[in-house]
Structure formats: structure tokens, C-alpha cells
Amino acid sequence: MHDTPHDPGSALAMRAHFRQSQSRAARLRLLVETGQELAQLAPEAMREQVLVRACAFLAMDHGVLQEWDAEGSASATARHGSPARVASLAALADRDLRAPRWHDQPHSVLQVPLRGSDGQAFGVLVLANSVSLRAPEHEDSESVQLLATLLATHLENHRLLTTLKARDRTLSDLVNRLLRAQEDERKRVAYDLHDGLAQTLAGLHQRLQGFAGRCPPLPHALAADLQAILSLAQHSVGEGRQLIAGLRPTVLDDFGLFKALDKEADRLRDAGINVVWRSHCAQRLPSQVEIAVFRIGQEAINNVLKHARASQVQLALGLRDEMAVLQVDDNGKGFAHDHPRDEARHLGLATMHERASLLGGRFTCASVIDGGTRLQASVPAGLNGVAP
């Protein structure tokens, strides 16, 4: 049997191919591992990690990440290596850089831009070595550029998320102020109506009753007119009281949440709906908690009257794990949450959710077609630690 002749050319080609494969694997590993790590890190740690990995990948012993803010002020946001060597690198950063750039003099330096989604560079990785190195291969430079792009994307996403959270907090604060202003205005208008128009209407009704009692017998047509006027005055007094109660029920301020909700449930009873209290709590709570839970209950009762077609509503109010919990169950027709109709109902649900969340609470809604609806709101009961 004859040995296969050795081909030095083939061996060299195989060795070169193996080294190329190793280089590609190293580049891929650099990008994959760094991408996985960046998702778990804070922005400062992201910068440090990318700078360290980029230096290690190109065998550089020091580097700096230079960034510019919206006003154009530059700052070094990450450093690697001895402070004396790093200090000189920041001055080399070129904000107009569009692609990786290699410098041989005075030291081996590679600059790699960080570009935002608008294509503008907001930072530059400056990598250097204490002794001269040959320029990295094109694929290596491209790998470091991809690494810089990964960092830029994560930093930009973090900035956008931070901005979004700040806007969300601002919006929540504005909604909270709006609801408080609304409650203050309702309270003011309710008291003004109670002390003004409501008293005038009540006095008018009493005077008309007194006049009717002292009036001599009238012809049938005039007597009918007088009775119609008395009925209209009495109806106006009733409407005024209902309007005041809707704006700011005095029973809420005077007797607390349970009595106010039970008074509100009279609207269900008047509509022929059976109301069952499964549990209740008469303890007074901080004013803003009572107002929020009352408004949620009021809106829930509105939804039952407008949409549910229910014959029974079960209510529960209690304290559980330092939370004030209100639950409203009806045996009505239910609804599908993703149904485009009943926009008013969905707006009411959104308002209830917002009222609960503004106080650090939760609101849930569970509904089944032809199976009724359950609403539950939980709000911290000891908010600010003071009762009204």
C-alpha cells in the first residue's frame, strides 16, 4: 500500500482556512455574548463592558468612550487603562467620523463612531496601544463597528425608555391634578347649590304649600294649575338634591364611604334591581381614598344601569392587607373586552383604572357574555395615614 504524497500547499491552505474560521467564530462570539450582556446592564456598565471587550478583541491596552450631549458638550463616559494614557485619547475623538479610522502615529489608534437612529454620531470609541500594532483587518474593524452599533442602540433605547417613563409620570401627575381639581370644583359647586339655589327652591316650595293651604276654594281649572305648580316645585327640589348628591354627596363627608355607596345603590333599587351587601366596612378612611373608591363605585353602578340589564348586584367593601377593596358583581349580560362597541363603558373602565392606579392601587374587570361582570378596585387604605 502506497502512502499518499504530502502536499505542503494543501496543508497551508487548510491551516489558513482553519484560522479564518477561528477568526469568524471569535467575531461572532464577541457580538453575540456582548449583545446578551448589554440587555442586562445599566447604561454606565454597558459603556464599560463594550470598551473593555473592544480593547481585548483588538489587543489594545487602553481606550476611552467620548460622547456629546444635545448642546454639544463632550465628556468621557467610559475609560479603560492607565489614567495617564487615557487622558490623551479624548482629544483625538472626531465627532464627524462616519466609519472606523486607523492611525499609526503617534500611537496605534482606532476610532469607531457611535451613531444614533438619525445617522448622526453622538460618540466615538477611541482604542489605542502603548506599542505600535499593525492595522486590524477589515473584518475586525467591522466587528468593532457592529459592537459600537449595539452599544449605540441600547443607549438610545434606554434614553427613549427614560423619556417615555418621565412623560408617563408627568401625564399621571397631570391626570391626578385634574381629578383633584375636578373634585374640588364639584365640592364647591355642590355647596354653592346647597346654600343657594337648593335653599331658594325649598323655600319656594314651602311658600307655595303655605299659600295653597290658606287659599280659598278655587275653580277646578285654577286648582289643577296650583297643584301642577306645587308638583313642579317639589320636583325641582328633588332634582336639585339629586344634582348636589351627584356632584359631591354630603353623606360621603358626613358618614363615610359605606353609607355613601349604599345611598348611591338606591339608584339600583329604584330601577328594580336587587342589591345585596355581602360585606361592608364602616371605618373612615383618608379623604382621597374615600373619594376615589366612591367614584369607582359610582361609575360601576352607572355601567350596571346603562348596560348590564341585571336583576341583581352584589356589593362588598372591606379592608384586606391594608387595602380598601370594593367589589361589584352583577348577573347581567356581560361583554367582550375587545368589542369595539360600548365606547362609553370602556371609557368608564379606563377612568376607574386610572383613579385606582393614581393612588398606587389596582383595578380589574372580568366579564363573560351572558355571565355577568365583576369589578374590583383595591386602594391603599392608609394613604398619608390621615382620615378626613
From TrEMBL:
The keyword Kinase applies. The keyword Zinc does not apply. It catalyses: ATP + protein L-histidine = ADP + protein N-phospho-L-histidine. CDD domains: HATPase_UhpB-NarQ-NarX-like (cd16917). It comes from Pseudomonas asgharzadehiana. It is an enzyme of class 2 (transferase). Pfam families: HATPase_c, HisKA_3. InterPro entries: GAF, HATPase_dom, Sensor_HK_TwoCompSys, Sig_transdc_His_kin_sub3_dim/P. Its EC number is 2.7.13.3. Coiled coil: none annotated. This is histidine kinase.
